[in-house]
Amino acid sequence: MNAHQSLAIGQPIERCEAISPAAAEPDAMVRFASISKTYPAYRGKPGVNALQNIDFAIPRGSITGVIGRSGAGKSSLVRLINGLEKPTTGRVVVDGRDISALAGRELRLAQRSIGMIFQHFNLLSSRTAADNIALPLEIAGWAKADIKARVTELLALVGIADKHDRYPSELSGGQKQRVGIARALATRPSVLLSDEATSALDPQTTRAILDLLANINRELGVTIVLITHEMSVVRQLARDVVVLDAGHVVESGHVADIFTHPKHPITQSFLAEVTGDSLPVSLASRIVAEPSAAGQAVIRLQVRGAGVGDTLVARLARELGLDVSLLAARIDEIGGQHVGSLVLGIPLGISGGEDAVARTLAFLSQHQFSAEHLGYVA
Amino acid sequence: MSPELINLIVQATFESLYMVGIAALLGTAFGLPLGVFLATSRKGELFAAPIVNRVLGIVVNATRSTPFIILVVAIIPFTRFVAGTSIGSTAAIVPLTIASAPFIARLVEAAIREVDGGLIETASSFGASPLQIVFKVLIPEALPGLLLALTLAVVSLLGYSAMVGAVGGGGLGDLGIRYGYQRFMPEMMLAVVVVLIALVQLVQSAGDYLARRVNRRLRHR
């Protein structure tokens, strides 16, 4: 009796300590509290620390992107949310319920309020679109008539009402993912997990599917967690982003903040993919280390923030008296912020050689631009 | 060929169909659950029980490596216990079932393992119980493979059924040996072989047709 009592009293205290400030955020749909996940060594393969010290919250009603390279721990993270995997330490609280502590029938009931869509759609080839959508409802024990009505409603919601009796082999990738989304939403979940859901689709279909997810978030208020390795997906859809690397959260926050002020090298490299920080191949191959008399110095500057860059080139030319040329540029607007890069050419022959480069860099740094001198082109 | 001999062939055909039919039903009744279990009970799987899996695997292999004619003779006491006698077509169903169940189990295991593991994860993600996964995902998705497996089992049983003549089981094989071989009646042997070939063709075609009908994977491309 005594032992039971002390156990019952001991547990809540332990749990309180486990909640970090971030995880204690009141209106969180998903909270990770001191999560670590270790896969034990098996058949000669060494053990893997998939996730370590994970502490963050996903706000209710938000669209949150979780981005990382393959092997960063994204899949493990998303499978902790719907209880397909158990954390080695820590807790995962979904909609106020500690999903990591549930098992058996209780877990299965909780899983009905968490939908999931997959990269390869994972539709049953033996069932029509309608019957695939009906599957989670059959499993939840709905009555036949209710299932029929709900399936019709869902097919219309995802815009494929005419595909009711089609088998997956008769559907395109985009249509299959629409069936997947309808199936995931069938039991009216409060969270929708997307595991690389657009990675197997072409850019146009990806855009359509992401638009559909945005609509679902807006109209149904479903919290969406997007697992992806593509920053463009996060940019188009997410409000918040969590950057994972080697099992750690290296950066997290609002997409606009992270995109304008990336701190971690991994974040910067993801950003380079969408903002085109990498040089055009034709230009990169022409850059050399030594200046030539009639050539240009190549300077790249980062554009991050609201309303910058627009008058920069003109001011640079006017104030320094330089015939600045624009070799490459890419600027996107992300969450109301300009994000991108400009590659400028500073002519050496007519403007005083090396001095022009130094003056340009000084001018840029004075106006808070991060710039680098890449070399010269003939 | 005299009407008496034709009558013998017809009777033997029905005996064979009776033995094979009932043995296939019973073999499936035991082999299907066993095969599903073998396919889902390794470490980390749906009904994870690695040790039971290993033991059942050894039992299945042992049964399958015993030559059928030796199995028939070896289990005569068991056959007598179950069927009341060790002679005749009904008694022959016992060894036929015991030989076919592990065979069917292995074929079922292979068919179930062909199902994409992602589908199990998907069904788990929306809260399906292991039994729901078996009946709503694994078996429907493996159905074309299961039908082909069953077809193969029936064809093999037709071959096995020829051997139970050795213990008075009757059927086409028995007829072929006794009349065709021991009484030097080559036309009887030929007739038996022709009927067996026709039966195998029929079973295989029917199995192929059904498997194709339920296979939605490629049909509409």
TrEMBL record, chain A:
<dbReference type="Pfam" id="PF00005">
    <property type="entry name" value="ABC_tran"/>
</dbReference>
<keyword id="KW-0067">ATP-binding</keyword>
<keyword id="KW-0547">Nucleotide-binding</keyword>
<dbReference type="InterPro" id="IPR018449">
    <property type="entry name" value="NIL_domain"/>
</dbReference>
<dbReference type="Pfam" id="PF09383">
    <property type="entry name" value="NIL"/>
</dbReference>
<keyword id="KW-0029">Amino-acid transport</keyword>
<dbReference type="InterPro" id="IPR003439">
    <property type="entry name" value="ABC_transporter-like_ATP-bd"/>
</dbReference>
<protein>
    <recommendedName>
        <fullName>Cell division ATP-binding protein FtsE</fullName>
    </recommendedName>
</protein>
<dbReference type="GO" id="GO:0005524">
    <property type="term" value="F:ATP binding"/>
</dbReference>
<comment type="similarity">
    <text>Belongs to the ABC transporter superfamily.</text>
</comment>
<dbReference type="InterPro" id="IPR041701">
    <property type="entry name" value="MetN_ABC"/>
</dbReference>
<keyword id="KW-1278">Translocase</keyword>
<feature type="domain" description="ABC transporter">
    <location>
        <begin position="30"/>
        <end position="271"/>
    </location>
</feature>
<keyword id="KW-1003">Cell membrane</keyword>
<dbReference type="InterPro" id="IPR027417">
    <property type="entry name" value="P-loop_NTPase"/>
</dbReference>
<comment type="function">
    <text>Part of the ABC transporter FtsEX involved in cellular division. Important for assembly or stability of the septal ring.</text>
</comment>
<dbReference type="GO" id="GO:0016887">
    <property type="term" value="F:ATP hydrolysis activity"/>
</dbReference>
<dbReference type="GO" id="GO:0005886">
    <property type="term" value="C:plasma membrane"/>
</dbReference>
<dbReference type="InterPro" id="IPR017871">
    <property type="entry name" value="ABC_transporter-like_CS"/>
</dbReference>
<dbReference type="GO" id="GO:0006865">
    <property type="term" value="P:amino acid transport"/>
</dbReference>
<dbReference type="InterPro" id="IPR050086">
    <property type="entry name" value="MetN_ABC_transporter-like"/>
</dbReference>
<dbReference type="InterPro" id="IPR003593">
    <property type="entry name" value="AAA+_ATPase"/>
</dbReference>
TrEMBL record, chain B:
<feature type="transmembrane region" description="Helical">
    <location>
        <begin position="17"/>
        <end position="39"/>
    </location>
</feature>
<keyword id="KW-1003">Cell membrane</keyword>
<feature type="transmembrane region" description="Helical">
    <location>
        <begin position="82"/>
        <end position="105"/>
    </location>
</feature>
<keyword id="KW-1133">Transmembrane helix</keyword>
<comment type="similarity">
    <text>Belongs to the binding-protein-dependent transport system permease family. CysTW subfamily.</text>
</comment>
<dbReference type="GO" id="GO:0005886">
    <property type="term" value="C:plasma membrane"/>
</dbReference>
<keyword id="KW-0472">Membrane</keyword>
<feature type="domain" description="ABC transmembrane type-1">
    <location>
        <begin position="13"/>
        <end position="205"/>
    </location>
</feature>
<protein>
    <submittedName>
        <fullName>D-methionine transport system permease protein</fullName>
    </submittedName>
</protein>
<keyword id="KW-0813">Transport</keyword>
<dbReference type="Pfam" id="PF00528">
    <property type="entry name" value="BPD_transp_1"/>
</dbReference>
<feature type="transmembrane region" description="Helical">
    <location>
        <begin position="51"/>
        <end position="76"/>
    </location>
</feature>
<feature type="transmembrane region" description="Helical">
    <location>
        <begin position="146"/>
        <end position="168"/>
    </location>
</feature>
<dbReference type="InterPro" id="IPR051322">
    <property type="entry name" value="AA_ABC_Transporter_Permease"/>
</dbReference>
<dbReference type="InterPro" id="IPR000515">
    <property type="entry name" value="MetI-like"/>
</dbReference>
<feature type="transmembrane region" description="Helical">
    <location>
        <begin position="188"/>
        <end position="211"/>
    </location>
</feature>
<keyword id="KW-0812">Transmembrane</keyword>
<dbReference type="GO" id="GO:0048473">
    <property type="term" value="P:D-methionine transmembrane transport"/>
</dbReference>
<dbReference type="InterPro" id="IPR035906">
    <property type="entry name" value="MetI-like_sf"/>
</dbReference>
